[in-house]
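User: My collaborator sent over this chain with a note saying "see what the structure looks like." That's all I know about it. Can you take a look?
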Amino acid sequence: MLQDKINRRKFIKISASALASLSMTSPVFSSENEVLRIGYLPITDAAPIVIAHAKGFYQEEGLPTAMPTRVRSWSTLTESFMTGKFNLTHMLLPIPIWMRYKNHAPVKVLAWDHTNGSAITVRADAKISGFADLGGKQIAIPYWYSMHNIILQLGLHKIGLKPVIQPQSVKLKSNEVNLFILPPSEMPISLSGKKIDGFIVAEPFNAVSEIKTGARIMRFTGDIWKNHPCCVVVMNERFPATKPEYTQKVINAIVRAQLWIMDNPEKTAKILSREGKGYLPVSQKTLVRVFTKYDIKTYGKGSLPQAIKHPEWNISRIGFQPYPYPSATAFIVEQMRKTLMEGDAEFLKKLDPDFVAKDLADDRFVKNAVAKFGGFDKFPEINIESPWDREEIIEL
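Assistant: Without extra context I'll predict from the sequence alone. Here is the result:
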C-alpha cells in the first residue's frame, strides 16, 4: 500500500513534467515514419496489441515497429506512456479517465482491446462460494482505478458487505472486506501461501492458480457484467489529431489481430506462451485454458463455487470486440464515484458521464477498421441491428 502511494506521487510528478515539456516544445509525434513503441503488462488483455506484432500486421500496414516491451505494473506503464517511452499501450479503462480528467494527460481511447477476461479467484479451502462469503476476508485487486475494483465493489454493495482499506493485521468485522493492491504476478503465490483469501484480476493469473494450486474461480467478471470492457487501446491525443493515417494503420492492425485471435485461440495461446514467442511468461497449457475453457460442466450449475450463472448470455471467458461503447464508459464514470479508492478522487464528482463518454474516446478509426475487415457480423458481441449502441447488462 505504501509502495502504491509512492508510485502515485511519482506518477503525478512525472505527468506534470511531461505535460510541461509537451507544451513548450514542438510536437513529439512529428514523423509519419515514427517507430511504434508498444508497452504492455504480461496479461492476456494485451493479446491484440502484441499478436498484431507477432503476426506482422503493423509491419504490413507500413508501420516501423519495435519489439513490444513488457512491464510489471500499471504504475510503470502509465509513467512510461506519459514520458513518451511508449506511444501505444493498453490500459484498464478507469486509468485513462483518471489520467485525462485528474492529471490533464493528453490520452485518448481509440478502441477496446478486449472484453471480459477476468475473474474472482479464491482458495479451495477458504469456504467461499459467492459474494456473501467474502465478509471478513482479504481480497487483492490490481489497481484502484480498475474494472476489477469497480465490479468487485458492485457485488459487495449488492450483498450488503462493506469494502474497507486498512492494514491486513487489523481484525475485520464480519461485514467488512479488506481491499489492497498486489501486482497481478504476485497474486497466485500470495493465495497459495494463504496471505490472502482471494483476488480479482485479469487472466492468465486465474488460470495459473487453478492449474498450479487447485484454486477455484468464484465468478467470471463477464458473467456479472455482460461483455464488459477491461483494457482499452490508448495513444497520445496528438496521433488522431495530427496523424490520422498513422492512427488508422495502428487500429487496422489491432482489429485484424482481434479477428485472428477469435479464429485461432489455440495458436494465439502458443504464440503468447513461453514455449512460443514468450510475450507472456506462462505455459501454453495455461493460456489454452484462458482462450478456450468456459464450459458449463466445469463452472456452471452444480459446481461450487458457481462461476457461471448466466449461460444464456453465450459469452466467452475473454472476448475481443473493439468498439468503445459510450454507454459502458458513462456507466464506469458513474460507478467510479461510488467505488472506494485510495487517494483524492474528488475530481470524479465534477465529471459528466456523457461528456466523458464522448470526449475520452475517438471511435472514427475503429469504425473504419471494422468495415475494412468484414463489418459487424465478424464480431459476435456487436448487435447488428444497432451496432454502435447497447444496453449495459449487470446481474449478480
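A starting point for your reply to your collaborator: The domain at 118-227+298-318 is CATH 3.40.190.10 (D-Maltodextrin-Binding Protein; domain 2).
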